[in-house]
Target: SUF system NifU family Fe-S cluster assembly protein
Amino acid sequence: MTQNNIEQWYRQIIMDHYQNPRNKGLVDDDAYHTIHLKNPSCGDDIQVQVKLEGEKLVDVRHQGSGCSICCASASMMSELLKAKTIQEADEVITAFKYMVSDQPFDEDLIEEAISLHGVAKLPPRIKCATLAWTAVSDAIHEDK
Model:
């Protein structure tokens, strides 16, 4: 696959998650940890909910508005982290943040989220890509 084909494939993945977000919509349930974050520089506004059973993330949800990168990233994050342990989720979150910061990372951990690798070349968009990931990290480490 040529570099151009890879980039086109990545764009398709991003647009699919933006137009057809997975796990979108919040639930009214006190068992969920909810974090609300905003990116004042671009207007991204997202809420992330996580339901934990012991050390396992049994559900990850999101709701909000923002650019295609922010919304697609939240969708990918919710799919990737569901059913992970807190430790596994932390490893995936770290790998994702390393990727968008153009640092070495484990590609196997982030699966489809590799499609957001190009954000590393767009420093103002890094916060767009990481907003949901920061929110979920805050949620799983929040003292309830």
In short: The longest strand covers residues 44-53. The chain is about 45% helix and 20% strand. The chain has a mean pLDDT of 95. The first helix runs from residue 3 to 19.
